[in-house]
Every structure is written in C-alpha cells, then in structure tokens.
Amino acid sequence: MRIFRILFFKELKAYFFSPFGWLILAFAALMQGFVLTEALEAFSDQAQRENLVFVTFSSPLFWFYFFVLFPVLTMRLFSEESRSGTLEGLLTAPVQTWQVVLSKFSASYLTFLILWIPAFFHFYLFTILTDVPPPFSKGEVGGAMIAIALMGLLFTACGCLASALTSSQIIAGLVCLGLLLVHFFLGAVTNIFGDTIPAAPLFEFVSSQNHLRDLTRGLVDTRPIAYYLSTTAFFLFLTYHLLDFRRWKP
Amino acid sequence: MIEISSLSKSYGRHLAVDKISFEVTRGDIVGFLGPNGAGKTTTLRMLTGFLPPTSGAARIAGKDIFRESLEVRRRIGYMPENVPLYVDMRVKEYLRFRGALKGLSGSRLRKRTAEVMETCGLTDVRRKMIKTLSKGYRQRVGLADALIHEPDLLILDEPTNGLDPNQIRAIRKLIQNLGDKHTILLSTHILSEVEMTCNKVVIIDGGKVKAADTPSNLVSSMRQAGRVTVELQTPKNEVEPIISSFDEVTRVVGETLQDGWNRFTVFAAPKTDTRLKIGNLAAEKKWPLRALSRRVGTLEEVFVELTRKD
Ligand SMILES: Nc1ncnc2c1ncn2[C@@H]1O[C@H](COP(=O)(O)OP(=O)(O)OP(=O)(O)O)[C@@H](O)[C@H]1O
Ligand SMILES: [Mg+2]
Questions:
Q1: Nearest-CA neighbor of A217 among A130, A153, A149, A146?
Q2: Torsion of CA A82, A85, A90, A93, to 10 degrees
Q3: Topology (CATH level 3) of domain B226-294
C-alpha cells in the first residue's frame, strides 16, 4: 500500500505539476461550457421534451471531446516510460506489477474526475444565477455523475492497455481512441440496423449511449454498473499481464 | 553471492545469451567484459528480473531470480545501461522517490539521500532538474540511485560510459571504496579500469563465457605470455638451435638489427619463464648480451585474443 501511494502521488504530480494537466483541464472546461451553451440555446429556442442534463450529455459535441480526453490523459502512462527506458528502473525496483498498474490507472482516473468538477459546477451555478426553476432534478445530475464516473473507469483502463502495448505515445493514443470508437459503434449498431437483428440485446447492453441516456434520466440500474466494473477489471488485468510478461516462464 | 547456471536468452530466433554459467563470491568486484552485442546487458537484465530467462536459472544471495524476484530485487542496486531517469524531477526529489520505492522512509530516507548525494558529488546540483544535468552528472544520479538502499550487490551496466577522465577516476575510486562493503558486478569496455579495480573478470562473446578468472591469471595464461626477447651479438645460426632445444620453447625467430646485433624472439609456453636459462646460457658461452625481457601481457591483449573474429 505504501508503494502504491508513492507511485500514485508521483503520477498525480506529473499531471498537475506541469502545464499538461492544466491544459487538459482548460480544454475540458471550455468544451463543457460550449456543450452546455448549446443545450441552453436549444431550450431557449423551443420547449424540450427531455431535461437539461440529458440534452447536454447527448449532443455529438459531448461525445467528441469526451473521447479525446482519454487518449490525452493515458497515452503517456507506460509508453513514455518504455521509450525513455525508465520502465527498467521502475520494474527492477522492489515493486509489484499490480502496484504499478493500479497507481497509474488511479492517478489518471482521479485526474479525469477532477476534469468534471467544472461541468457539474455549471448545473449548480444555474440554480444560483437564475431564478427560473431548473429544468432538471438533483437525481438526474447525480445519474449523469455516475454515468461519467463509470464510463471513465472503462475508458481509462482501455487507455492504460493501449499505452502498455507500445512505446510510442501517438500510437497508444490512436489505439485508445480506436478502442473507444469501436465500443461506441457497438452501442450504435441497433440505431443503424434496427433492434430486430439477432444480437440486438447484447448491443443494447454494451451501449454507452443507452447507459448515459438512462442515467441522465435518473434511472439507475445495477447491470450497467456491473458491466463497467467487470470490463474495467478485465482491461486492467490485460495491462497487468502485458507488463508482467517478464515474469512468465516460457 | 551470484550463482548462474546455464542461463540462456533468445530474442525470437536470435540467441543472445547461450548457456552461460559463472559464480561471483561475496565481496568480489567482477568485471563483465565482451565486445558489442556479446550479451552483457541481456545477462544483467535477466539477473535484475527485467527480462525472463529463456532457460536456465540463477540465484542471488541464495534466492532464485525468477521465483523470488521481489526478494532478489530488494538486495540489488542496479544501474541500467544509458541511465534512464525521470528528467522532469529534481535530483533530490528523484533520489527520495527512488529511496522510498526501495523501502526507506522517515529519517533513514533523509539520511541516506544526503549520504549518497555526498558520496556521488551531487550535493551542489540537488535542486537542479535532471534534464538540465550533463551526462556525467546523470550517471552519478544513476549511481546514487543504485546505492541508496545499501544493497548487498551492485550491478552496474557501463557505469563510466561517456565520462571525462577525471570523472572516470572519481567513479573508479568510488567503486574501489564500495568494494569494501558491497559485491559489485560491472560491465565495461574500459579495460584499464578493470585491471585497476576488479579482482575477477568474466569475458563473454557471442553469448558464451570465454574466460572467468582473476586478471593476473588471465594475463599470465594468454598465448603470448611466455614470449621472451633477447639481444645478442652472436650469429643467428649459432644461437637458434640451442635455444630451440629447450623443452618449453616452441620456436625462435631471429632478426638482425641495423647496428649488427641480433634480436631473437623466443616463443615459449604460457606461464614459463626462460629468461634465467637464456641468461645462464649466454654467460656460459660468453655471448655478448645487452637485453633480455619477457613479454608482460595486458588485459586488452587477452580480450582481443579471446574475442577476435578471425
Ligand atoms: N530487445 C531486443 N530484441 C532483439 N534483440 C535484442 C534485444 N536486445 C538485445 N538484442 C540482441 O541481443 C544481443 C546482445 O545484446 P546486448 O545488449 O546484451 O549486448 P551487450 O553485450 O550489452 O553490447 P554492448 O557492449 O553494445 O552494450 C545483440 O545481438 C542484440 O542485437
Ligand atoms: Mg550493453
């Protein structure tokens, strides 16, 4: 646990003691502002069937910047260490591989969560600054938080795996983005081909769009939660073995 | 301290290390030599648990490097080739981070950080970013990192690569001092350094061990080591048959120098000394003699002899 803590804080420092973390934070805050503005404009143009949280988190612009965050946050994690050779020093120190994997994952996940503070602060601001009754409920905001946190888990784990695969940051970033897009399109299959195709329930089950839709409507289901937790564990497990191959006996 | 038994490593079809075996006893300073691509770095990486061996086994302080990797890594201070460091950290911050990773904490961490910075001459640059340091100073940071947890065994891959002569001397001194308390396995291409610091040498080539012995034994057992040169005024055809008849002498080659004297090169078996016999012979026969010397080999010649490709 001590080793985990040391590594975790080192990774966290790498995000926030450099311009890098602050740039991503600025980018995320800016995009969150755009998306919210867009949603508010839609509300001012005409009455909306859905609540403000739902409209905000279902715009295409949201998915665009949401998917960009993960490669940017995670591509550096292992690639940079194996390119510069510091991985050799790290793995020949008396540390266990799971400590390395979990500390890097946790630090980038925490950074990701911090990026969302402005977005949820916006909703809070809305209730303070305007005297109109907010077009959303606390439950819907809470649901959106859960959705973001859950998707963040899986997608950060994808990023870790991509980064452990290659010593090139660019390739790691692209692989991560690729994985995320594949996941996204698996979720969109039923929108394109209709829900009468054979594996439709399966596609519905893995669809982040559906999860986000349900949760931003305030519907909390345990199945998506189980889905994200287990897939996250699976991707981290793959990452662990990719790094730990050096202890495999051929 | 280290027992290596038929350790092999292949990268795909390329066999980089081919069943090497040797031992290092506690307190030794061992020079690990070999031409480029011989497999030194690969061997050291296997010992430190960074690469898995393809076959074979090795034990460090009685622990298997593969099954008890964590235990082994606790006892090793390793300085990898080219000294990779986190360049965005400051020197002291980096050493504290590494010390903490290796299990130091509190006042002991503080004390050891100050000590290794002192030993490696880093105190003046402790607040500098590692990326602003020169190569020699980075090398020292790597060495300080290897030393910080007071390991029993130091494994250094080309510790003096790229240093200036003063720094090489300083590091050599440091290694000699460390040798009192630590066992050291170091790979290097600077043979004079090995002659001065190491009490054992392992030479590998093409992934195979070519020699493992003390430097003085290696030098005295090399092929050229028994060779003796004599300068006499006596004609060649008179001298050659007599010296050739000695048991240990294989061949005598004479040449006439510009001033009329003859120089004879006597090829004899290694570890023999024919100087006394030749001297006595010259005295007995009243041959005028002005020079008599035996070839003193160097480790460099041993190295070349063992690893030459032709
Ligand atoms: N990751 C790798 N993949 C494939 N081949 C490798 C790898 N690392 C080393 N080799 C090969 O293994 C052989 C031994 O390399 P190694 O780095 O151990 O040599 P070395 O003795 O350290 O040489 P040098 O004196 O140049 O440092 C070389 O032929 C090298 O090309
Ligand atoms: Mg090498």
A1: A146
A2: 140
A3: Alpha-Beta Plaits (3.30.70)
Reported confidence tier of residue A248, pLDDT bands at 50, 70, 90 = low
What end-to-end distance do the CA atoms of chain B give, in Å? 36
The per-residue pLDDT string of chain B (310 residues; one tens digit each, 9 = 90 and over) reads: 899 988 999 888 888 898 999 899 988 899 999 888 889 999 999 999 888 888 888 999 888 888 888 999 999 999 999 899 999 999 999 999 999 999 998 899 999 999 999 988 889 998 999 999 988 889 889 999 999 998 989 999 998 887 788 888 888 888 888 888 889 999 988 888 888 888 899 989 888 888 888 888 877 777 666 788 888 888 888 888 888 888 878 888 888 888 888 888 888 877 777 888 888 888 888 888 888 888 777 788 778 878 877 6
CB atoms within 10 A of CB B287: 17
Asked if residue B14 has its Cβ within 6 Å of ligand 1, the reply is: yes
| Closest ligand 1 atom, residue B204 Cα | 21
Q: How many CB atoms lie within 10 A of CB B174?
A: 18
Q: Topology of B2-220 in CATH?
A: Rossmann fold (3.40.50)
- Average pLDDT value for residue range A50-54: 75
Q: Is the dihedral of CA A160, A161, A164, A167 positive or negative?
A: negative
Residue B135 Cα, gap to closest chain A Cα (Å): 15
C-beta separation of B58 from B76 below 8 A: no
Domain residue ranges of chain A, discontinuous segments joined by +: 2-248
pLDDT of residue A246: 58
Q: Which residues contact B153 (CB under 8 A, 6 or more apart)?
A: B1, B2, B60, B61, B75, B76, B77, B182, B183, B184, B185
Query: What is d(CA A189, CA B17) in angstroms, rounded to the nearest whole number?
Result: 51
Compute the distance between CA of residue B256 and CA of residue B234 in angstroms, rounded to an integer: 10
Tell me the shortest Cα–Cα distance from B79 to chain A, in angstroms. Answer: 8
Distance B15 CA to ligand 1 centre (A): 10
pLDDT in tens, A24-50: 888 888 888 888 888 888 777 777 677
The pair of structure tokens assigned to B129 is: 């970013």
Reported as type and span, the H/E element at residue B252 is strand B249-256
Closest CA to A74 of A247, A232, A241, A245: A232
CA gap B187, B47 in Å, rounded: 13
**pLDDT number for residue A250:** 45
Domain ranges of chain B: 2-220, 226-294
ipTM: 0.86
Partner B contacted by A9 (CB < 8 A): no
The span from the CA of A127 to the CA of A132, in Å, is 8
Q: Do A96 and B54 touch (CB under 8 A)?
A: no
What is the DSSP pairing of strand B183-187 with strand B228-232? Answer: unpaired
Residue B287's identity, in one-letter code, is: W
